[in-house]
Amino acid sequence: MGRLALVPLALMAVALALPAEDDRLEEMRGKTVLVFTPHPDDDLFGAGGTIALLNRKGNKVYVALYTNDDKGSYDPEMTSQHLAHIRKAEEEAAEALLGTLKENLLWMGYDDGMLEYAPQPKLVEEATAIIRRIRPDVLLSIDPGEWYERWHKTDHRMAAFNTIDAVRAAEFWLYFPNQRLQQHLEPYTVPVILLLSSAGGSQLLRQHRQCDRSQARSGDEHVSQFEPSIHKYRSDWDPADLAKAKEELKQEQPRKDGHYVEPFRRATGFIQY
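Predicted structure:
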Protein backbone atom coordinates (compact mmCIF):
# COMPACT_ATOMS: atom_id res chain seq x y z
CA MET A 1 0.00 0.00 0.00
CA GLY A 2 1.28 3.44 -0.87
CA ARG A 3 1.15 6.36 1.51
CA LEU A 4 0.41 9.99 0.84
CA ALA A 5 0.96 12.95 3.09
CA LEU A 6 -2.14 15.10 3.35
CA VAL A 7 -0.13 18.13 2.39
CA PRO A 8 -0.66 21.18 4.63
CA LEU A 9 -1.43 24.57 3.13
CA ALA A 10 1.96 25.83 4.23
CA LEU A 11 3.89 23.16 2.34
CA MET A 12 6.71 24.54 0.27
CA ALA A 13 7.79 22.83 -2.95
CA VAL A 14 11.54 22.74 -3.27
CA ALA A 15 13.92 22.01 -6.13
CA LEU A 16 17.56 21.09 -6.22
CA ALA A 17 20.14 23.45 -7.63
CA LEU A 18 20.81 22.07 -11.10
CA PRO A 19 23.85 22.84 -13.29
CA ALA A 20 22.33 25.75 -15.19
CA GLU A 21 19.95 28.36 -13.87
CA ASP A 22 17.52 27.55 -16.66
CA ASP A 23 17.38 23.95 -15.41
CA ARG A 24 16.09 24.78 -11.95
CA LEU A 25 12.68 23.27 -11.36
CA GLU A 26 11.41 26.59 -10.02
CA GLU A 27 12.20 28.27 -13.33
CA MET A 28 11.16 25.54 -15.76
CA ARG A 29 8.53 26.39 -18.35
CA GLY A 30 7.40 24.42 -21.36
CA LYS A 31 9.35 21.31 -20.31
CA THR A 32 8.31 17.66 -20.12
CA VAL A 33 8.49 15.94 -16.72
CA LEU A 34 8.03 12.21 -16.11
CA VAL A 35 7.37 10.87 -12.60
CA PHE A 36 7.61 7.14 -11.87
CA THR A 37 5.72 6.09 -8.73
CA PRO A 38 5.24 2.63 -7.15
CA HIS A 39 1.66 3.30 -6.02
CA PRO A 40 -1.07 5.85 -6.69
CA ASP A 41 -0.18 8.31 -3.93
CA ASP A 42 3.62 8.06 -3.61
CA ASP A 43 3.96 10.70 -6.32
CA LEU A 44 1.98 13.12 -4.19
CA PHE A 45 3.70 12.18 -0.94
CA GLY A 46 7.14 12.68 -2.46
CA ALA A 47 6.57 15.45 -4.99
CA GLY A 48 3.03 16.83 -4.79
CA GLY A 49 4.14 20.41 -4.25
CA THR A 50 6.67 20.16 -7.04
CA ILE A 51 4.12 18.67 -9.45
CA ALA A 52 1.70 21.51 -8.70
CA LEU A 53 4.45 24.07 -9.25
CA LEU A 54 5.55 22.52 -12.56
CA ASN A 55 1.99 22.34 -13.87
CA ARG A 56 1.29 25.90 -12.82
CA LYS A 57 4.31 27.10 -14.81
CA GLY A 58 3.15 25.47 -18.04
CA ASN A 59 5.18 22.27 -17.99
CA LYS A 60 3.73 18.98 -19.16
CA VAL A 61 3.75 16.43 -16.33
CA TYR A 62 3.29 12.69 -16.85
CA VAL A 63 2.97 10.16 -14.02
CA ALA A 64 3.77 6.48 -14.65
CA LEU A 65 2.21 4.29 -11.97
CA TYR A 66 3.68 0.82 -11.55
CA THR A 67 0.87 -0.71 -9.48
CA ASN A 68 -2.86 -0.35 -8.93
CA ASP A 69 -2.43 -0.46 -5.10
CA ASP A 70 -5.11 -3.11 -4.72
CA LYS A 71 -4.02 -4.84 -1.49
CA GLY A 72 -3.62 -2.23 1.27
CA SER A 73 -6.84 -2.67 3.24
CA TYR A 74 -7.77 -4.53 6.44
CA ASP A 75 -11.48 -4.27 5.62
CA PRO A 76 -12.79 -7.89 5.35
CA GLU A 77 -15.51 -6.73 2.95
CA MET A 78 -13.07 -5.06 0.55
CA THR A 79 -12.03 -6.80 -2.68
CA SER A 80 -8.90 -6.18 -4.73
CA GLN A 81 -10.98 -5.16 -7.73
CA HIS A 82 -12.96 -2.61 -5.72
CA LEU A 83 -9.86 -1.23 -4.01
CA ALA A 84 -8.04 -0.81 -7.33
CA HIS A 85 -11.05 1.14 -8.64
CA ILE A 86 -11.08 3.34 -5.52
CA ARG A 87 -7.36 4.05 -5.63
CA LYS A 88 -7.49 4.90 -9.35
CA ALA A 89 -10.33 7.36 -8.81
CA GLU A 90 -8.55 8.93 -5.84
CA GLU A 91 -5.33 9.33 -7.82
CA GLU A 92 -7.09 10.92 -10.79
CA ALA A 93 -8.91 13.39 -8.54
CA ALA A 94 -5.78 14.26 -6.56
CA GLU A 95 -3.59 14.78 -9.64
CA ALA A 96 -6.32 16.83 -11.28
CA LEU A 97 -6.12 19.26 -8.37
CA LEU A 98 -2.38 19.54 -9.04
CA GLY A 99 -3.08 20.31 -12.69
CA THR A 100 -2.06 16.95 -14.18
CA LEU A 101 -4.26 15.79 -17.05
CA LYS A 102 -6.03 12.45 -16.65
CA GLU A 103 -4.59 11.24 -19.96
CA ASN A 104 -1.09 11.91 -18.62
CA LEU A 105 -1.50 9.23 -15.95
CA LEU A 106 0.15 6.09 -17.34
CA TRP A 107 -1.08 2.98 -15.54
CA MET A 108 1.30 0.02 -15.89
CA GLY A 109 -1.26 -2.23 -14.19
CA TYR A 110 0.72 -4.42 -11.77
CA ASP A 111 -0.86 -5.67 -8.56
CA ASP A 112 0.20 -4.21 -5.24
CA GLY A 113 3.16 -6.04 -3.69
CA MET A 114 3.85 -8.08 -6.83
CA LEU A 115 6.28 -5.82 -8.65
CA GLU A 116 9.35 -7.82 -7.65
CA TYR A 117 7.75 -10.94 -9.11
CA ALA A 118 6.83 -9.41 -12.46
CA PRO A 119 8.38 -11.10 -15.51
CA GLN A 120 11.88 -9.86 -16.23
CA PRO A 121 13.08 -8.14 -18.36
CA LYS A 122 9.48 -7.26 -19.29
CA LEU A 123 9.25 -4.69 -16.50
CA VAL A 124 12.40 -2.88 -17.61
CA GLU A 125 11.24 -3.02 -21.22
CA GLU A 126 7.91 -1.41 -20.35
CA ALA A 127 9.52 1.41 -18.37
CA THR A 128 12.09 1.92 -21.13
CA ALA A 129 9.31 2.31 -23.70
CA ILE A 130 7.63 4.96 -21.56
CA ILE A 131 10.88 6.93 -21.28
CA ARG A 132 11.55 6.71 -25.03
CA ARG A 133 7.99 7.79 -25.83
CA ILE A 134 7.68 10.65 -23.35
CA ARG A 135 11.34 11.82 -23.75
CA PRO A 136 11.34 13.82 -20.50
CA ASP A 137 13.53 16.81 -19.76
CA VAL A 138 13.40 15.75 -16.11
CA LEU A 139 12.63 12.35 -14.60
CA LEU A 140 11.58 11.87 -10.97
CA SER A 141 11.57 8.50 -9.24
CA ILE A 142 11.97 6.76 -5.87
CA ASP A 143 15.48 6.99 -4.43
CA PRO A 144 17.16 3.54 -4.29
CA GLY A 145 19.69 4.82 -1.73
CA GLU A 146 23.13 6.37 -1.80
CA TRP A 147 26.06 3.89 -1.81
CA TYR A 148 23.95 1.23 -0.17
CA GLU A 149 20.64 -0.51 -0.65
CA ARG A 150 18.33 1.37 1.66
CA TRP A 151 15.35 -0.64 2.85
CA HIS A 152 12.07 -0.14 1.02
CA LYS A 153 8.86 -2.06 1.07
CA THR A 154 8.88 -4.37 -1.89
CA ASP A 155 7.21 -2.21 -4.57
CA HIS A 156 9.26 0.84 -3.61
CA ARG A 157 12.50 -1.11 -3.80
CA MET A 158 11.68 -2.64 -7.17
CA ALA A 159 10.35 0.60 -8.67
CA ALA A 160 13.50 2.44 -7.59
CA PHE A 161 15.94 0.03 -9.21
CA ASN A 162 13.78 -0.81 -12.23
CA THR A 163 13.38 2.84 -13.20
CA ILE A 164 17.12 3.47 -13.03
CA ASP A 165 17.74 0.34 -15.12
CA ALA A 166 15.22 1.60 -17.67
CA VAL A 167 16.84 5.05 -17.82
CA ARG A 168 20.13 3.44 -18.77
CA ALA A 169 18.55 0.98 -21.22
CA ALA A 170 16.73 3.82 -22.97
CA GLU A 171 20.07 5.29 -24.08
CA PHE A 172 21.18 2.27 -26.14
CA TRP A 173 19.02 1.14 -29.03
CA LEU A 174 20.23 -2.46 -28.78
CA TYR A 175 18.29 -2.75 -25.53
CA PHE A 176 14.85 -3.79 -26.75
CA PRO A 177 15.56 -3.03 -30.44
CA ASN A 178 11.96 -3.91 -31.33
CA GLN A 179 10.96 -0.56 -29.85
CA ARG A 180 12.93 1.25 -32.54
CA LEU A 181 12.25 -1.14 -35.40
CA GLN A 182 8.54 -1.70 -34.78
CA GLN A 183 7.32 1.13 -32.53
CA HIS A 184 9.58 3.89 -33.89
CA LEU A 185 10.81 4.74 -30.39
CA GLU A 186 14.30 6.14 -30.75
CA PRO A 187 16.95 5.89 -28.01
CA TYR A 188 16.86 8.67 -25.46
CA THR A 189 19.15 9.97 -22.73
CA VAL A 190 17.38 11.56 -19.75
CA PRO A 191 19.10 14.90 -19.02
CA VAL A 192 18.15 15.26 -15.35
CA ILE A 193 17.17 12.58 -12.79
CA LEU A 194 15.83 13.58 -9.37
CA LEU A 195 15.25 10.96 -6.68
CA LEU A 196 12.38 11.27 -4.20
CA SER A 197 12.25 10.62 -0.48
CA SER A 198 16.00 10.74 -0.17
CA ALA A 199 17.53 10.57 3.29
CA GLY A 200 20.00 13.41 3.35
CA GLY A 201 21.64 13.82 -0.02
CA SER A 202 24.81 15.58 -0.99
CA GLN A 203 23.11 18.71 -2.39
CA LEU A 204 20.87 20.80 -0.16
CA LEU A 205 17.73 22.42 -1.45
CA ARG A 206 18.03 26.14 -1.95
CA GLN A 207 14.74 27.70 -2.92
CA HIS A 208 11.29 27.35 -1.40
CA ARG A 209 8.05 27.90 -3.25
CA GLN A 210 4.64 27.96 -1.60
CA CYS A 211 2.04 25.75 -3.20
CA ASP A 212 -1.53 26.78 -3.81
CA ARG A 213 -4.65 25.47 -2.08
CA SER A 214 -5.35 22.90 -4.80
CA GLN A 215 -2.07 21.17 -3.97
CA ALA A 216 -2.98 21.07 -0.29
CA ARG A 217 -6.43 19.67 -1.04
CA SER A 218 -5.09 16.95 -3.34
CA GLY A 219 -4.14 14.76 -0.40
CA ASP A 220 -7.68 14.86 0.90
CA GLU A 221 -8.76 12.77 -2.08
CA HIS A 222 -6.88 9.70 -0.81
CA VAL A 223 -9.41 8.78 1.87
CA SER A 224 -8.77 5.03 1.58
CA GLN A 225 -5.08 5.39 2.46
CA PHE A 226 -5.73 6.47 6.06
CA GLU A 227 -7.64 5.42 9.15
CA PRO A 228 -10.39 4.68 9.74
CA SER A 229 -10.89 3.76 6.07
CA ILE A 230 -8.04 1.25 6.06
CA HIS A 231 -9.90 -0.95 8.52
CA LYS A 232 -13.44 -0.09 7.41
CA TYR A 233 -13.72 1.76 4.12
CA ARG A 234 -15.70 4.95 3.90
CA SER A 235 -15.71 7.28 0.91
CA ASP A 236 -15.48 10.54 2.83
CA TRP A 237 -13.63 12.06 5.76
CA ASP A 238 -14.85 12.66 9.25
CA PRO A 239 -13.50 16.18 9.97
CA ALA A 240 -11.78 15.04 13.17
CA ASP A 241 -10.04 12.15 11.39
CA LEU A 242 -8.88 14.44 8.60
CA ALA A 243 -7.47 16.96 11.04
CA LYS A 244 -5.67 14.20 12.98
CA ALA A 245 -4.16 12.68 9.82
CA LYS A 246 -2.92 16.06 8.62
CA GLU A 247 -1.33 16.86 11.96
CA GLU A 248 0.45 13.49 12.17
CA LEU A 249 1.82 13.83 8.67
CA LYS A 250 2.93 17.40 9.23
CA GLN A 251 5.15 16.06 12.00
CA GLU A 252 6.79 13.65 9.53
CA GLN A 253 7.27 16.13 6.68
CA PRO A 254 10.89 17.37 6.28
CA ARG A 255 11.58 21.02 6.99
CA LYS A 256 14.24 23.50 6.01
CA ASP A 257 14.54 27.04 7.35
CA GLY A 258 11.21 26.60 9.10
CA HIS A 259 9.33 25.53 5.96
CA TYR A 260 7.90 22.19 4.90
CA VAL A 261 9.96 20.93 1.96
CA GLU A 262 10.16 18.12 -0.57
CA PRO A 263 13.77 16.87 -0.75
CA PHE A 264 15.32 15.37 -3.88
CA ARG A 265 18.73 13.90 -4.63
CA ARG A 266 20.18 14.51 -8.07
CA ALA A 267 21.60 11.51 -9.93
CA THR A 268 24.73 12.59 -11.78
CA GLY A 269 25.46 9.61 -14.05
CA PHE A 270 26.13 5.90 -14.26
CA ILE A 271 29.24 4.01 -13.26
CA GLN A 272 30.20 2.14 -16.43
CA TYR A 273 32.10 -0.71 -14.78
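Summary: The CA atoms of residues 3 and 70 lie 13 Å apart.
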